[in-house]
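Reading a protein record of the kind used here takes only a little practice. Each token is a code from a learned vocabulary of local backbone shapes. With that in mind, consider the following protein and its fold in token form:
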Amino acid sequence: MMQALMALIPLVSVFAVVLLLAGGAIWLFIRAGKREKEEDILMRLRSVSAEAAPTSDGVGSTRVENPLLRWFCHLVWRTGADVSAQTVLNILLIMAGVAVFALILFGVLYGLVTTAVLLALIWAWMSRQGALRRAKIIEQLPAFIEGVIRVLGAGNTLDESISAAAKENPEPIGPLFSSVGRQIRLGAPVESVLMEVADINRLNDLKVMAMAAAINRKYGGSLRSLLRSMIHAVRAREAAARELRALTAETRFSAIVLSMIPVALVLFVMFQNPDYYKNMWLDESGRNLLIFSVVMQLLGMGIIYRMMKSTGDGQ
């Protein structure tokens, strides 16, 4: 009886770690939803008052100097979660504590494997959410730019046109450009805000829009004609990308299966025979083989990921 209970301890511990990480993710997105609603209300109040002095909020609030923290922040912000960099840092510290707990509980080998698998799952889920949101933004972008052109035709400025068009568009592009319009009203240059949003969400079209805004502000010219050209370019590229994804669907699925089979086999062997990899890890040659296998697996998954990414729209 005691042996059965002792055998269940690792599974219960893994389940507890997964619940802890899942609870943190749920808390993150609940907080993001509440904050988005609060900021939308504040944005409407500021637009009514028409007098908003520049504050510390603005484009500088999303700039993070530390490159590692900036990478994690962009990964979180890309999913649409509107949380501060400090909140992301706190979540990273909690995850580091959970990783240390896993190393103490399972040992170095199993602790590292468990932590790596959980982090990989979280990263894959957040990357997937960010990719889906980005695809929706690109799909809605031509209609949004058409709205901007209509407002520009009435004699409004670009920042006023962006704010007006954002109110007429659904999620996710509506809240995204509502935030852009809010930062512009608080004093940030329109091209700087668009460039930063483009960097966070990996949208090269917004970089073109930012450069067009900068050129129009310095030298003048017809901004509406350039935006119309952008609409045609976005629609043509999306049609080509959809055709390419359809032609490579079978190949991409095979690549995913090939990447997951070794990981699944390792996890199966670990739970069926825990001493198998433990004995290999204690032996010097076995440990070197394990490290070499993990490095080669990660390298292969990276190559496959880059090949799959090349079938996208190139942004």
About this structure: The chain is about 85% helix and 0% strand. Residues 11 and 271 are 9 Å apart (CA to CA). Confidence is low (pLDDT under 50) at residues 41-61.
